[in-house]
Amino acid sequence: MDNSTQSTHKYSLSFEGSASKFFEVIVINWLLTIVTLGFYYPWARARKFQFLYSATEFNESPFTFHGTGKEMFMGFLKAIGFFILLYALSFTLIYLRMPIVGIISLYVGILTIIPFAMHGSYSYRMSRTSWRGIRFSYRGDRKELYILFFKSILFTLLTFGFYGAWMVINLRNYILSNIKFGNLKFKYSANGGEYFMLNLKGYFLSIVTLGIYSFWWMKDLYAYYINHLTLENGADKIRFRSTASAGGIFSLILGNVVIIVFTLGLGYAWVITRSFTFLFENIEMVGSVNVDQIVQDYKSGTDATGEDLSDMLDVGFIV
Amino acid sequence: MTTFSAVYYDGQSSVPHPVKVTVYDEDRQLIISFDQDTVYWNISDVKVDTNGRVSTLAHINIPNAFLETTEKDIHILLKKNDPSGLISSRVKGRSGFLKVVGLCILILAILAGLYFYTLPFVAEKAVVLVPSSFDDQFGETVFNSLVNENERDSVKTKQMQAFADAIDFKSEKKLKVIVMNSEEINAYALPDGHIVVYSGILKKIDKPEELAALLSHEASHVNQRHSMKLLCRNFAGFFFVSVLMGDASGIMAVIADNANTLRNLAYSRDYEKEADLKGIEILQSNHIDLNGMVDLLEMLDSKDPGVMPDFLSTHPLTKSRIEYVKRESADNNQPDPHPELIKLFQDLKHTESSAKY
Fold this sequence. Notes:
Structural class of chain B: alpha+beta
Low-confidence stretches of chain A: 1-5
Structural class of chain A: alpha+beta
Helix content of chain B: 40-55%
Number of helices of chain A: 11
Oligomer: heterodimer
Strand order of the largest sheet of chain A: 1-11-10-9-8-7-6-5-4-3-2
Order of helices and strands of chain A: EEHHEEHHEEHHEEHHEEHHEH
Low-confidence stretches of chain B: 86-93, 247-251, 306-313
Distance between the termini of chain A: 33 Å
Distance between the termini of chain B: 98 Å
Strand content of chain A: 5-15%
Largest sheet of chain B: 7 strands, antiparallel
Strand content of chain B: 5-15%
Shape of chain B: rod-shaped
């Protein structure tokens, strides 16, 4: 692979999904979920992911989602079981006239589960994602994530929320830097202070300009996310850069709102495909990694419990 | 026997291997020819996926190895279901999308039927489960927040109560009629049996049977528990919509809520009609002249600016109300003269307003 060093490659990322096909997928998902009183939901999620992954192409090869509805259903059951136990415990404590202990144990329980859900979600999702047969994997350590999470939460509480920006960046740095793509490693190195100033500036300028600046703020947030990411193979690197403009984001959002309002929500599929197309075509990649020579480096992931927990908690896959 | 070109990935690295793939229909096999080598795959072991531009063919027993091709309609070539659609794979030809749209419309129609007909019916039946003490509590709360004591005309209220007591409204609740000083031409009933009549409408009424008709209409709202029914329908409607929308965005919730409100306007028109008809029954059983209802509506009609289109108005257009009320009151058999009502009505009309302003 030495021959690839020094030479510069161009890469492409695109979304090829057809909105009408996606519409079909979500309508059928929706109907089956209603008819089965919600039990189809894990299969619906798997179907949606399969569609969205295969519609996304890197260097003209699609991604594949290998997760199944059955896996997610098992995770779904475990996740529900956990919530039932947690609520049962807290209500028992309240019933036993210890309301404060009951409520605290509920909050602590939910807080404790968040890093578990994040770890499980990344571990599961990455191990079920492939490109040209090469699997992604998440190599983070659950204990390290717990320590990082609780340290960050503690500081955030002590600083009345100001540390929140550092917390987000700490988690992002840790999680994204632990993702591998075959033998390639992702690296994310951002700075909480910069992120804080970015949000502070965005917040105040948006208020002063009655919201107009919010599109520049969103542009900056997206660029901050993308520009600090690299994909590395030893000395070779792929750098990511956002080319999204505030005007582009404005017309994306305006278009999405118009579609949703005038189709009474039926245009959701078009909103999603438009958004993905916009986000992906605005990522520019340059580097010296030869992606035709990635070597499989597989690590099996966890089960889907964390994935389903994070879906229920609405933690969001992307930190 | 068909041949197409593809790229093979072995699952060990991302190195692309250009290959020729031959489809053997008789043996249901794929022959994958490399420069030096040949590999055989059973078509029954192959899983096809496509995003419209690129299709992938994965072997179910060889982890991560697969073929990638831009050849169109691979599933037709391999005689497999179209992987890109659950429904269009089962319907043949290009009409697949149209059929999906048709199915969607059918299902939406069924859901709409549930929402517009079944749901209100069930919700209304569920009203019997709500104890009548709740009506009283709810009515009293609304009454206290709506009625400004300073505008109450205490003398006329007393006279009005005497007038109402002379009529049998077949009501389980004691009706408490209150006259309020306001130029508004309006009257309304609350679920606990309070009936509020504005002095504005009282001025326009000039026959005792008209006033009796007005009170019968409002009493019917109370007797039929219309407020509770509306509340149950509202709640069930909101619940239904939020279940359907699942994790819908805020915009959807607003749309859903407005849709619910728009529909309730139509509902309350049904209730107005029911109150008109039940009101006529009350007049009939009290042997009061049914023309009172017709006169009342004609009076309201002359006051009605008439600019509000039918579908936006909470009351059915007075014109159509007059029509069905006239039809219903055709057998106006022998109304009694009711001297006591005439007397009470004249007292009411000739008393000066007593409200403190």
